[in-house]
Amino acid sequence: MPLVGCPRRGPPLPLAGRGRRPPPARATSPKCEASSSSSSPPLLTRRAVSAASLLLAAVPFPSSWPQLAVAYATEADAEVTGEDRGAGDLELERYTDQDQGFTLLKPASWPQVEKAGATALFQQEGKGSNNIGVVVNPVRLSSLTEFGTPQFVADRLLQAEKKKESTKSAEVISVGERSGHGGLTVYEIEYTLDSTRGGMKRIFSAAFVASRKLYLLNIAYSDTQEMPLDSQTRSVLEQVLHSFDSV
Fold first, then answer.
1. Run of H or E residues at 52
2. Cα→Cα distances 113→37, 51, 131, 137, Å
3. What does the pLDDT average to over 6-29?
4. Please, which residues have CB within 8 angstroms of residue 139's CB and are 6 or more apart in sequence?
5. At 159, is the secondary structure helix, strand, or coil?
6. Residue 100 dihedral angles phi and psi, to the nearest 5°
7. Model confidence over 130-153: pLDDT tens digits?
8. Which of 24, 42, 142, 244 has its Cβ near the most Cβ atoms within 10 Å?
9. Judging by beta carbons within 10 Å of its beta carbon (0-12, 13-18, 19+), is residue 225 exposed, middle or buried?
10. Is this structure's pTM higher than 0.90?
11. CA distance 123 to 129
């Protein structure tokens, strides 16, 4: 009975001539070429995609845009004391990216780190799940109002959050709108997110469109029942939120 194997690829083997022996049979069994390739996309970081990337999904723009992924709290992070976790006593400093065209305040002690898909990302030392991220991408809109109202964007954002398997609950706290540099419209959204990957968090998001670019700010901070977000820290995070603007 003929052996059944994968079809051989490439040119046919030359026939053995005089004084030439055919190569010995290989001990290994034939293998078919795998249907999957090494071009599969890399896995995201363990933290679920941030609010900024969810806003990208909520607004009908190209789905190929990079997502902003940020690390989530580990068990070691949960052991940080209340004195270490507070941001209320942090001094804020101005960060401006002239090339991308945005500016914001950030805690001076939060270093900038590199993360795929993030235009800028700042993390609290020792607790990377507390972070501030910015994503900038081109769009076809001249203003965010062309897409919808702040409430409409917030509803789409929460729908995207709740579709994630890791999400236990998500609830909008506030939705607002303000005028930025040159009169541009800035949307601001605050909500709580309880997830199996990161626990309870408070999320502050801001978005605006300028020069045919969509600018997204995401501020994530731990807000657990054991260590709730205190009013002083909240005030600092709101200063960061309101400072996000074009240049």
1. helix 51-58
2. 31, 18, 10, 19
3. 49
4. 59, 61, 209, 212, 213, 214
5. helix
6. -85, -20
7. 999 999 999 999 999 998 999 999
8. 244
9. exposed
10. no
11. 7
